[in-house]
Amino acid sequence: MIADDSQPIDGPVFYPAKKVRRRRILFFGAVLIVNLISSLWLLDLMWRMGFQKAHFPFMLVFLLLNGLLVLGSFHAWFGALEMLRGKKRSVRISALAEKASGPLKMRHAVVMPVYNEDSVKTCARIEAIYRSIEATGHLESFDFFILSDTRDLDLWVLEETSWTNLCRRLGGFGRIYYRRRKTNENRKAGNIGDFVRTWGGRYESMLVLDADSLMDGADIVKMTQVMENYPRLGILQTPPKLIRGASVFTRLQQFAMRLYGPLFIQGLNFWQLSGGSYWGHNALIRLQPFSEYCELPALPGREPFGGRILSHDFVEAALMVGKGWEVWLAWDIEGTYEEAPPTLVDHLIRDRRWCQGNLQHLWLIFARKLPFSVRMHLFMGIMAYLGSPLWFLFLLLGTWIAWDRSQSNLSQLPFDSYAERWFGVNGVQQSVILTLGVFILLFSPKILAVIGAILNKKTRHSFGGALRIIFGAGFETIISMLLAPVIMAAHTVMVFSIAMGKAVGWGNQNRETDGTSWGDAIRFHLTPTLLGLVWSFVAWKIGVTFFAWMLPILIGLIFAAPVSVFTSRVRYGQALARRKLLAIPEELNKPQIMELADQATAALDPALDASVGERYGLIAAVVDPYVNGVHVSFLEQAELTDQDRALAEKCLVEGPSALAKNELSDLLYLGSAMLMMHRAVWLRPADAIHSVWTQALQSYRRRLDHISSV
């Protein structure tokens, strides 16, 4: 157990600090050396050409961008080296579970925060995880919590009925819990915080899921065994795989993550080790230190840079590591899944929220006493979005330099070059060598992943064969090259809008769509399209060579809308799926946990259903006896005030549309009012209540008529 002061217990360390430092010096030393060599090579080329004013910021931006490129590429390279060493010789925190036997010693919670989600599908995922854990024989050690921040009143009622059906069918009352917050303060972080303060003391750890998360029960048990057997462990993060992609966009995403992801994940684990990060879901968290140290303060000032921290997960991991707790990435946990936004537009809308959250970390990255790994994670999160405006600036500066040279008619190289003196290369050869180096950094991770997948028989077969791997990697590379300039432009606009003080709202994620319409695509991508057309004209005026050099960027910008529409289409994604193209192993050989989720129907019961035509959501909560009974059972009974009675009467006579949303919400929290309204709609004459109630009552008669005719 954990000591009262919540400090990690003394005892054996899984991976010694001396070895951790050695790995980090090796990794970041290699990144620094390669970046310096590349930058000095470009600096020598600039010197050879004759320095202009634009060369100074150009070199500075190149130093930053190339550093990010080398950093990303080296994650794949070191990951490949780790794979070559083999699983047994790699550092795996999950190896601690291999020695565990017998029942779990402590209690654990499975927690799923939801916000305006499809309750049937979220309950289906809970059902699948429940049955999967039950199959391991460890169900008695787990409780499940659906933590709702849903603001849609109809969906609120549907959540209650889905949860009730789920518990009735699984025998889950007293093990599966549902709670909806009346005030959703501080978004998801506040939702989790409320759970920790209210119920956290009962459990050793909580498994945090997203509404689209799915995890194999055996892997969950393995994670809890690691947590129980290693008292220093604060957070155990898994690398979730993307699944159920229907559109071309999501199929490309999940294929890329599944094929290239393992290299980057193992490369990340190579240096972070016990100083890892938390990604917000599909992670196991020890509750006592989380409760003690991870209460997030508001940042100075107002949003977007101040106020509540949006990207809370990175900061919570930072606080854990800063207090001596270890945060590990369980890179070899296989049965961990999530879903992705279905279109480029939805992806960028979600990115807007993440962008603001990550930029808030600028307040924290230079805070005192933060460990090195924490600063690196914050830095990489910030640069995931600042990298785009830097790339945009780099291209602008490059255009400026090319324009200046084309207008000045410079034809001589005025200065001596160290590259020429030492290596005997001319200016053209020097440029080609630099370009080749950048291309190697860009594409070598994909090449390594493809070669590794083809050479490994099990991996090759899991993707449907070598030809499908090669086709998928090639197709993904082409589409990614077209999408990259669009994402660059979108992220640049995001960063500037946030810098101008425009904060983001909190919306639920769109998980299903039939594609982006042409009108929406043109409106959303108008800025990059116009930018691409203007830039093309300028590049052509500079010269054919420069235009050809910029062409991959320009094509992506100009054709942003068509590419966005094409990749959003489900029918094209289905056509690829029928031919097993861009297929992932989970698609060709579906894991049991996905089968369980597909077969899950416990949340559905015609006897308790708030999704029927005229009796949908809050209408059902008033009219339907079963739905009303379930809803009222969640509420406290209190004497109604005259104001409460007047509000209920207005709803009965004038209909729900006559009330403001906050008035309807208040009414739905009044148990006595809901019972009074239920009796009234059944007992009053039809002309004494609004037609919405009489139509709901008539739907029962139509159902009875249908049954009698059968």
Written account of the structure:
With 710 residues, this protein is of the alpha/beta class. The chain contains 28 helices and twelve strands. It has a domain at 611-709. The strands form three sheets. The protein has a seven-stranded mixed β-sheet, with helices on both faces. Strands 5-10-7 form a three-stranded mixed β-sheet. Helix 9 packs across helix 11.
In short:
The protein is of the alpha/beta class and 710 residues long. It is built from 28 helices and twelve strands. The strands form three sheets. It has a seven-stranded mixed β-sheet with strand order 3-2-1-4-8-6-9, sandwiched between helices.
Mean pLDDT: 91
Q: Would you count the extended β strands for me?
A: 12
The percent range for helix content is: 55-70%
Proportion of residues in β-strands? 5-15%
Structural class: alpha/beta
Largest sheet: 7 strands, mixed
Q: For the largest sheet, list the strands in their spatial order.
A: 3-2-1-4-8-6-9
> Radius of gyration in whole Å, from Cα?
29 Å
> In whole angstroms, how far apart are the ends?
63 Å
Basic shape: globular
Can you count the helices?
Answer: 28
Low-confidence stretches: none
Topology diagram in text:
Blueprint: H1 17-49, H2 55-85, E1 108-114, H3 119-136, E2 142-148, H4 153-170, E3 176-180, H5 187-199, E4 205-208, E5 214-215, H6 217-229, E6 233-237, E7 241-242, H7 248-272, E8 283-286, H8 287-293, H9 312-322, E9 326-329, E10 336-338, H10 344-359, H11 372-408, H12 418-423, H13 427-455, H14 457-462, H15 466-499, H16 518-524, H17 526-542, H18 544-558, H19 560-568, H20 570-578, H21 585-588, H22 592-599, E11 611-612, E12 615-616, H23 618-623, H24 625-633, H25 642-654, H26 661-668, H27 671-683, H28 691-709
Parallel strand pairs: 1-2, 1-4, 2-3, 6-9, 7-10
Antiparallel strand pairs: 4-8, 5-10, 6-8, 11-12
Helix pairs in contact: 1-2, 1-13, 2-7, 2-11, 2-13, 3-4, 3-6, 3-22, 7-13, 7-15, 7-20, 9-11, 10-15, 11-15, 11-17, 13-15, 15-18, 16-19, 17-18, 24-27, 25-27
